[in-house]
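hey so i finally got around to running the thing on that chain from the lab meeting. sorry it took forever, my laptop kept dying and i had to restart like 3 times. anyway pasting the input first so we r on the same page abt which one it is
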Amino acid sequence: MNRMSRDSEGPPPLPAQVGPYLRELVRRTRGVCGADLVSVLAVGSLALGDYRPGRSDVDVTVVVEPSVSGAVLRELAGALAHPRLPCPAPGLELVVYDRGFAGRASGLAGYLLDLNTGPLLPSRASFDPARSPAFWYVIDRSVAHRAGVVLFGRPAREVIAPPAASDLLAAVRASVREHTEGEGHLADNRVLNGCRSVVFCRTGRWTAKRVAAREIAACEPGFRPLVEGALAGFERPRAEAVGLPAAEVRAFLTWVRERVDEAAGAVEH
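ok and heres what got predicted. didnt touch it at all, straight out
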């Protein structure tokens, strides 16, 4: 079965700029993994309808049978590495899980392979989840469960379990702390991720960054100029990103942390 559809409401069309790339990625993944391949899912901005050419990475989750060997995973990393498979986006972020782990709720990173590659993304192929902060993967699996676009195989909700609420809020907390520090993150993306975190805590749903930012700008007038500046910056390619006032960004993310802490405290009690 090879279908590019979404298993949740309102599927966004996959951008034309990445369609051929994703088809070739699936072809190579099937060729390497064979019968052990369970699903290939587009996640992140592709799943949420917020992909921006020149700005967004291509995010993909792969689910395989537990019998997949380390040699196969290393072969897959090589087959998908840029420029061997030229990436049309700033980068590819691809994570492979075994079906047993992916199918149960967890607050761990838990991957078999975490591959970062692309023209603007530092190359990395990790096979040891203990070396990576877990929160990125917990959030990504939550988005994948709710909105993953099926590129091949079984639907996202059949193969990716949603994290427990406490684990997910802990992950959102850690994400906000990471963006507050700011190292290695564009200012506009830090602000938009903060908006999405607050909207998630208020509604329990993951939204596109731009949708979340418009919601925050509408209901928090004190932060509106900063959020609108982040939205304008997000329209620019990554290589042409512009800065935002550092003190305002930090103040906003401090406010975001307080909102996330309130939501986490409500769950804990």
